């Protein structure tokens, strides 16, 4: 159907559009040149083929009904009418498939206090780049991070609204569960942590699950912030002596700092930890290790240790790398500094290389590495070919952005943001093209998004993509975690 705004008889066309059953049909419609204020804000976003419908409502609760048409340039259209735009999932998928690399035009007519308003059309772009992953995994946690009475690791199918639990802490006595980390979105190889008196580091590889002791005195603490080597044999970790403190009067709520931290590599074949003095310096705090896509480099962040907790806000991390030999497990002899954020009185955290080897995305904050509660935290992009680094203004907001990861084809990434209300982290997606141009991010779709996000009392934490649904026997894993079965490393 053509745009209602292009014809002098648009009022009659609106009436014709709404002949199907609906809660309220547009009538006596007034026209405005303003764009509709919708929640979530999907105006001008770019989406992949196969994503779940971008259902939305008017942001203002005074609106009681919406009438929405989504159409392409070929005459194809879908329609939704009700308290919010709830598109038929099969029709939505078909329309996106027909318009890969093109755009869709959206016409919104909304009712408030019995009066209908027709808004200016907006566009949604359909990316030429596929999002090949089945879904995403994440932890859901209460936003304060000091309480974990009810939490778990979950997975969500991106083509639908279906979410399921991978493992909840109710399976093993309510301990803290954290950091589900797959190897390049591979659901057959992952690691996660359970903290507490009977804690463990669970490593799933080669069709089996190894449960390691949560604390390792040889490395001086717990195995934290894992990242897999691409060949799957090695997994890099940091070991952190972590503390929390809480602000009494500040726009920040929580600070997380480490009395000490180092980086090491774990060999899943020999069950050994590989230590090296270059990444375990006495007066320096190394953290957040990640391997390059070709496995030849180990990236990490490092900062000079401060007096804690008094000088926590003087701790500023730089981004470094050291060579790694995947055949021998040996660390190189020279550390290169790639981003000297400390010289600008800034701090780098959570580096994540794109799998095509072009970029490292990282979070930059004023200090420290636990950026999730730092409102100034933004996503930055380092071009590894040129050494240039830039703030990704296209996706950043006035509130904290953090915990990002790449899709396997390196054309999509996800991240968490507090932009909605400053309290809860929500999950967003954006794409990047061959020239490094980034699109406007979109919120993880939900069937009834306004109701869903208002009622959800948990934050999304440490998300990542997954190629397929993760298969885990939660009851058996819970039994093993509750037992004394542990391996030394």
> How many E-type strands?
35
Overall outline: globular
Which consecutive residue ranges, at least 5 long each, have pLDDT under 50?
Answer: 1-22
Counting DSSP H or I runs of 4 or more residues, the number of helices is 4
pLDDT averaged over residues? 90
Strand content: 35-45%
Question: CA-to-CA gap between the ends?
Answer: 65 Å
Notes on the protein architecture:
7% of the residues lie in helices and 44% in strands. With 489 residues, the chain is mainly beta. The strands form nine sheets. Strands 1, 3, 5, 6, 7, 8 and 9 form a seven-stranded mixed β-sheet that branches.
What are the SSEs and their pairings?
Blueprint lengths: L9 H8 L12 E2 L6 E2 L6 E2 L9 E2 L4 E9 L5 E6 L6 H10 L4 E10 L2 E4 L3 E5 L8 E7 L10 E6 L5 E6 L7 E8 L2 E10 L4 E6 L2 E6 L1 E2 L4 E2 L1 E5 L5 E13 L7 E14 L4 E3 L9 E8 L5 E8 L13 E8 L4 E10 L7 E7 L5 E7 L12 E6 L5 E3 L9 E6 L5 E6 L8 E6 L10 E2 L5 H7 L3 E8 L7 H9 L7
Parallel strand pairs: 1-8, 3-9
Antiparallel strand pairs: 2-4, 5-6, 5-7, 7-8, 7-9, 10-11, 10-35, 11-12, 13-14, 14-15, 15-16, 17-18, 19-20, 20-21, 21-22, 23-24, 24-25, 25-26, 27-28, 28-29, 29-30, 31-32, 32-33, 33-34
């Amino acid at each position: 159907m053509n745009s209602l705004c292009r014809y002098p008889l648009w009022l009659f066309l609106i009436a014709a559009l709404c002949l199907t059953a609906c809660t309220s049909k547009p009538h006596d419609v007034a026209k405005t040149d303003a764009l509709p204020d919708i929640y979530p804000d999907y105006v001008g976003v770019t989406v992949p083929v196969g994503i779940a419908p971008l259902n939305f409502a008017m942001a203002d609760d005074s609106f009681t009904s919406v009438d929405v048409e989504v159409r392409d340039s070929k005459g194809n259209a879908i329609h939704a009418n009700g308290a919010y735009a709830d598109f038929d999932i099969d029709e939505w998928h078909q329309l996106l498939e027909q318009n890969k690399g093109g755009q869709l035009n959206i016409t919104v007519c909304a009712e408030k206090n019995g009066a209908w308003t027709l808004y200016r059309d907006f566009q949604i772009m359909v990316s030429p780049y596929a999002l090949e992953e089945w879904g995403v995994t994440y932890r859901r946690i209460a936003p304060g991070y000091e309480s974990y009475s009810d939490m778990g690791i979950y997975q969500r199918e991106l083509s639908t609204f279906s979410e399921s639990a991978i493992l909840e802490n109710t399976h093993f006595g309510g301990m803290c569960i954290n950091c589900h980390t797959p190897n390049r979105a591979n659901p057959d190889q992952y690691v996660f942590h359970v903290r507490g008196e009977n804690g463990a580091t669970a490593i799933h590889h080669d069709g089996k699950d190894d449960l390691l002791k949560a604390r390792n005195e040889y490395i001086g603490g717990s195995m934290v912030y894992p990242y897999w080597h691409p060949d799957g044999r090695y997994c890099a970790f940091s070991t952190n002596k972590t503390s929390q403190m809480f602000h009494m009067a500040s726009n920040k709520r929580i600070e997380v700092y480490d009395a000490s931290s180092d980086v090491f590599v774990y060999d899943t074949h020999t069950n050994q930890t590989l230590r090296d003095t270059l990444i375990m310096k006495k007066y320096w705090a190394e953290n957040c290790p990640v391997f390059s896509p070709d496995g030849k480099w180990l990236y990490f962040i490092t900062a000079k240790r401060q007096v804690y907790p008094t000088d926590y806000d003087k701790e500023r991390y730089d981004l470094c790398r050291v060579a790694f030999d995947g055949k021998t497990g040996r660390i190189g002899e020279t550390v290169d500094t790639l981003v000297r954020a400390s010289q600008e009185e800034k701090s780098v955290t959570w580096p994540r290389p794109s799998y095509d080897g072009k970029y490292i995305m990282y979070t930059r904050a004023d200090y420290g590495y636990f950026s999730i509660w730092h409102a100034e935290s933004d996503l930055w992009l380092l071009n590894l070919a040129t050494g240039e680094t830039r703030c990704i203004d296209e996706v950043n907001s006035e509130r904290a952005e953090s915990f990002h990861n790449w899709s396997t084809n390196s054309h999509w990434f996800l991240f968490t943001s507090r932009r909605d209300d400053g309290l809860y982290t929500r999950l967003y997606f954006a794409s990047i093209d061959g020239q490094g141009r980034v699109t406007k991010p979109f919120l993880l779709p939900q069937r009834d998004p306004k109701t869903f996000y208002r009622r959800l009392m948990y934050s999304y934490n440490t998300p990542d993509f997954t190629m397929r649904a993760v298969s885990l026997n939660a009851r058996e894993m819970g039994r093993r975690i509750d037992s004394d079965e542990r391996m030394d490393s």
